Amino acid sequence: MKKTVTFTLTCRYYICKYKYSSAYFWFQTPIVLIHLYELLYRGSISTGGPLKAKILSQRARLVKLKNKHHTETNYRRLPLYARINTLKVSDPVGVIKILQKDFSNRDFVGDPHVNYLLKFPPETNFSQYPLYKQGQLILQDKASCFPAIALNPPPNSTVLDACSAPGNKTLHLAALMNNTGSVFAVEMNQKRFHRLKSNVARYGANNITCVNADFLSIDYNNPPYCNVSHILLDPSCSGSGMVTQRITPTTTATPSPASRVSALAKLQLTLLNRALVFPNAERVVYSTCSVHVQENEEVVRESLRSNPSWRLARVLPAWHRRGDTTVFGDADKCVRCASDDETNGFFLACFIRDIQHKQSDFQNIFSVHHILQRFKIKYHYKSPYKFCNRFS
Question: What number is the average pLDDT over the span 78-92?
Fold first, then answer.
């Protein structure tokens, strides 16, 4: 960790020293670090502007510094994953044949866990590649593909992605549904919402409706949301599985301020509990790019305690890395990913509704209704379920 910090600070020093004032740089730290990553590990910087020009002017020094850092820390680089976009591609095999002509066969392989996901060397650059620019390839980390696979919505179903932007998981859902049914992509942040809409249009999804709203404000008692049967919830998290897993090959999270992680866990639990009260929801997937137990297994455990009509399903059974069973016994039904798996750090849990419990609630509601009617007792009852569809 110490060497990682030294590397980052040294990058900052070179840029400040040679090209512009440190005051300007420090205010721009987040975007500078993104540009540094793109330059050093993807080969190019995707956006333009004066910041890009100033960083490129120090490219030789930064590359030399990166090579020195990798030698000292045995840095492990993650592959670049590209998913064939079946929303636009009707012949995935044809796309693979084109890739085989443009790349050596040894340069990419098909992923054994995710259909149409291809693994390329880390230095592969798709920024100007025609298939990528045409939207036929979507750059998406392997672990990020797992939530849609676990949710597994059938064609013509009604799905809600609660925290959707930038939309890679949403697009994957639409592809699994063969561009049928309805996918409501909810995003509260205005800027991220515009990016979501742009990606949906670019990649050819016709069954996605983008909604600029807070998921907690969604009215699940009325159409169209009362018809939702599958929900994907990938809320804001500490991101501890993302940055650190790209820097050091360890499964241990970099310590985050305890108060921040605690606050995020409370929000995540609130959002998850909200998803589990949608009246016709049958399946809910909760995922984060965090490696903290507090944001993962502990959130799932508390939600199960509050929602007895739901239980966990064991998804991706062939995947070897599972949840922490020291938190609760069924955590082995959850999925975890780490850099040793050539992915970012990730967590996933799939909730399924206990149908018998749901039908029992339905019967109890009407039993109470008949008793009160028999004795002519006036009452007002607001059902926890909105009967938009019959119970299955």
Answer: 96
What is the tens place of the pLDDT at every residue in 174-213?
999 999 999 999 999 999 999 999 999 999 999 999 999 9
Q: How far apart are CA 356 and CA 366, in angstroms?
A: 16
Q: How far is 369 from 218, CA to CA, in rounded Å?
A: 28
3-state secondary structure of 297: helix
Cβ neighbours of 49 (radius 10 Å): 10
CA distance 243 to 8: 12
Does pTM top 0.70 for this prediction? yes
The verdict on whether 289 is a catalytic residue reads: yes
Catalytic residue chosen out of the listed positions 237, 289, 337, 350: 289
Would you call 191 exposed, middle or buried from its count of C-beta atoms within 10 A (0-12, 13-18, 19+)?
A: exposed
Summarize pLDDT for 86-133 with one digit per residue, the tens: 999 999 999 999 999 998 766 899 999 999 999 999 889 998 999 999
Task: Give the up-direction half-sphere exposure of residue 175: CA atoms within 13 A in the CB hemisphere.
Answer: 28
Q: What are phi and psi of 230, to 5 degrees?
A: -135, 135
Rounded to whole angstroms, how far apart are CA atoms 205 and 171? 7
CA distance 21 to 374: 81
d(C-alpha 174, C-alpha 207), whole Å: 7
CA 107 to chain centre: 26
Q: How many CB atoms lie within 10 A of CB 275?
A: 26
CA–CA separation, 241 and 126 (whole Å)? 24
Task: Single out the residue of 88, 73, 227 nearest to residue 160, CA to CA.
Answer: 227
Contacting residues for 74 by C-beta, under 8 A, at least 6 apart: 249
Confidence of residue 230 (pLDDT cuts 50, 70, 90): very high
Which one, of 135, 132, 167, 131, lies nearest residue 148 by Cα?
167
